[in-house]
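Tokens for chain A. Residues wanted.
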């Protein structure tokens, strides 16, 4: 049955590919060779990847986006279906000097401005804003993030100029020096599509087990969820508290949980995003104390190399971000990759979101 389902879903090429579960040999990181995979250590400047179409498959949280912090400065175009991720990528990679395709008033830059930009970040729906393709230059690196989602959306009823977007997508792949296709599961159609171009395809499928032996507890109200979190903290358990609340997170936690809480990371506020030193401290398991509460607003936390591991995730989704879909809720939870328990309260009218989260009971 499983094999039939793989074929029906069109995932045969991806499914049959060898899983990379231990670190391959990387120049400059030889000490990692053979150890269990934790994060991608790909150097995008390595000659091995240059001039190719690199299809990089890896589950959530392995660092597909953050690896480009090592990319040498050169012309780059970053394409994503999500505006927040584009802004995040640009902010995290200031050395690449990318222009965000929209102005401060959310209106797009003129085509001439976009074409003249040294490097660019834009939404897949807006590829057509680069014109007919005749004046489009290739880039040193063309990065397509969340490829499968972008391709699916490119033929949805939200796409206003399907052919225009496709013409530019093809031109970018043809004319750019090195192409990066990022995601997790890739359809057979993707590989057939990419085989049309006169470039070698390098496909690497990285794997680290996540979502194993998960217990999901859905609470009837916010108060019960908070009481459960207090109980875990009183037993010296480490808790990751994730919420889509954009404002007043620290005030909320100080009022509802403890006046001593100081964690207030917010990925929408550049001044509240974790610094490199904070990330390094957070990644050091020896420095993590028990009975610790980490409060996040991680809707757009892509591109941060954070080891979020802890056994308990407390998830409060009280409809502060109405556009956040059920699959987003699941990804939201897996900012904490090694959790074993998800305690959640989701506004009760969000039946679909609750249903998708419950599917994680494995």
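Reply:
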């Amino acid at each position: 049955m499983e094999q039939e389902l793989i074929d029906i879903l069109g995932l045969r090429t991806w499914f049959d590919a060898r899983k990379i579960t231990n670190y391959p040999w990387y120049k400059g990181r030889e000490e990692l060779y053979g150890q269990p995979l934790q994060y991608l250590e790909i150097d995008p400047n390595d000659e091995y990847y240059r001039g190719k179409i690199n299809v990089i498959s890896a589950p959530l949280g392995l660092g597909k986006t953050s690896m480009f912090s090592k990319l040498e400065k050169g012309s780059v175009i970053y394409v994503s279906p999500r505006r927040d991720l584009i802004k995040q990528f640009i902010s995290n990679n200031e050395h690449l000097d990318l222009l965000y395709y929209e102005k401060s008033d959310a209106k797009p830059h003129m085509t001439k401005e976009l074409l003249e930009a040294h490097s660019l970040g834009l939404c897949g729906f807006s590829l057509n804003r680069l014109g007919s393709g005749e004046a489009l230059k290739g880039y040193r690196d063309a990065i397509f993030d969340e490829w499968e989602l972008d391709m699916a959306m490119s033929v949805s009823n939200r796409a206003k100029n399907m052919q225009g977007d496709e013409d530019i997508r093809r031109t970018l792949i043809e004319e750019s020096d090195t192409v990066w296709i990022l995601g997790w599961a890739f359809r057979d159609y993707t590989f057939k599509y990419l085989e049309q171009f006169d470039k070698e395809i390098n496909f690497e499928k990285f794997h680290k087990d996540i979502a194993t032996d998960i217990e999901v507890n859905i609470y009837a109200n916010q108060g019960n969820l908070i009481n459960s979190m207090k109980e875990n903290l009183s037993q010296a358990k480490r808790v990751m508290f994730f919420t889509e609340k954009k404002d007043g997170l620290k005030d909320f936690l100080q009022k509802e949980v403890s006046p001593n809480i100081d964690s207030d990371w917010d990925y929408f506020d550049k001044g509240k995003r974790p610094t490199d030193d904070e990330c390094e401290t957070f990644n050091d398991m020896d420095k993590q104390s028990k009975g610790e509460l980490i409060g996040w607003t991680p809707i757009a936390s892509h591109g941060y190399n954070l080891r979020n591991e802890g056994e308990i995730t407390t998830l409060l989704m009280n409809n502060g971000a109405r556009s956040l879909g059920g699959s987003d809720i699941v990804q939201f939870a897996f900012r904490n990759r090694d959790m074993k328990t998800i305690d959640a309260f989701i506004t009760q009218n969000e039946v679909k979101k609750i249903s998708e989260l419950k599917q994680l009971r494995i």
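The radius of gyration is 21 Å. Residues 162-175 form the longest helix (14 residues).
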